[in-house]
């Protein structure tokens, strides 16, 4: 399985990561990636940048070190209503929006509340992918949420850091179940390193192993080709990115 995009990465702007966007792009080039998503933490995460940082990503070149750059964010799910911590005016500036639970922003609650929050953020139409869903602090009704994700063309991330045990300990078993159920339902998957240092860019081996274990069809893994990924964005209602016309 050939992964050509890392869809979840952080730079020093996130406040607790250690590499610049330039360093991350160079690492992506050296590891053979074609596209790289810049997904720093949104404002409610401690240490994260102001929302102007995300609106101003339009000044980023579409290519750095020969790697295509996707302008994105890892937004925080704020509440049961499924609101995220960026104004709707930011949406036009972003190619790729991850929505995730983070304990400093959304205090772990009941399974019913987590389920409602995920369904509502999916139905908001403002996000493209659910990030690191395996966190055992945020149990949810997997069947219900994954069915909603499929019905609304929202991707499900298989997060390599979650599987490594470095953070969100206990995620591995839950990630396994999410991939198993999601594969049966027919969701779109993506693979994210969740890199907080440039050497972690494209570190996706555990994610790939899990997808292979459950024999997920590559056509459902949008990070396996630039065409799959960019056409998924079109499916999400995004405008074509003219600089990437050779990647469609």
UniProtKB/TrEMBL annotation:
Domain Polymerase/histidinol phosphatase N-terminal: 5-79
Name by which UniProt lists this protein: Phosphatase
Entries under Gene3D superfamilies matching the protein: Metal-dependent hydrolases
UniProt cofactor note: Binds 3 Zn(2+) ions per subunit.
Co-factor(s): Zn(2+)
Molecular function (Gene Ontology), one example: zinc ion binding
Pfam family, one: PHP
SMART domains with a match to the protein in the record: POLIIIAc (SM00481)
Family recorded in the similarity comment: Belongs to the PHP family.
Positions with a binding annotation for Zn(2+) 1: 8, 10, 74, 194
NCBIfam families assigned to the protein according to its UniProt record, in alphabetical order: PRK09248.1
Residues annotated to bind Zn(2+) 3: 74, 102, 132
Entry GO terms, CC: cytosol
HAMAP family in UniProt: YcdX_phosphat
Positions of Zn(2+) 2 binding: 16, 41, 196
Keyword annotations of the record: Hydrolase, Metal-binding, Zinc
UniProt source species: Vibrio albus
GO biological process: bacterial-type flagellum-dependent swarming motility
């Amino acid at each position: 399985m050939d992964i050509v995009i890392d869809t979840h990465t952080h730079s020093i702007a996130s406040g607790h990561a250690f590499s610049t966007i330039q360093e991350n792009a160079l690492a992506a080039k050296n590891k053979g990636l074609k596209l790289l998503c810049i997904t720093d933490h949104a404002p409610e995460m401690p240490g994260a940048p102001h929302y102007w940082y995300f609106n101003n990503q339009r000044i980023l070149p579409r290519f750095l070190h020969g790697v295509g750059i996707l302008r994105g964010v890892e937004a925080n799910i704020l509440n049961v209503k499924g609101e995220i911590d960026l104004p709707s005016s930011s949406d036009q500036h972003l190619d790729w929006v991850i929505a995730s639970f983070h304990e400093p922003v959304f205090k772990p609650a009941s399974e019913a509340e987590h389920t409602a929050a995920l369904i509502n953020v999916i139905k908001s139409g403002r996000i493209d992918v659910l990030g690191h869903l395996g966190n055992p602090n945020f149990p949810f009704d997997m069947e219900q949420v994954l069915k909603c994700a499929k019905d609304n063309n929202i991707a499900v991330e298989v997060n390599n850091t979650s599987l490594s045990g470095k953070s969100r300990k206990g995620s591995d078993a839950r990630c396994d179940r999410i991939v198993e159920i999601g594969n049966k339902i027919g969701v779109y998957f993506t693979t994210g390193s969740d890199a907080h240092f440039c050497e972690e860019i494209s570190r996706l081996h555990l994610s790939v192993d899990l997808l292979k274990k459950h024999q997920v069809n590559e056509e459902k893994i949008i990070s396996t080709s630039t065409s799959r990924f960019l056409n998924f964005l079109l499916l999400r209602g995004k405008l074509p990115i003219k600089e990437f016309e050779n990647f469609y």
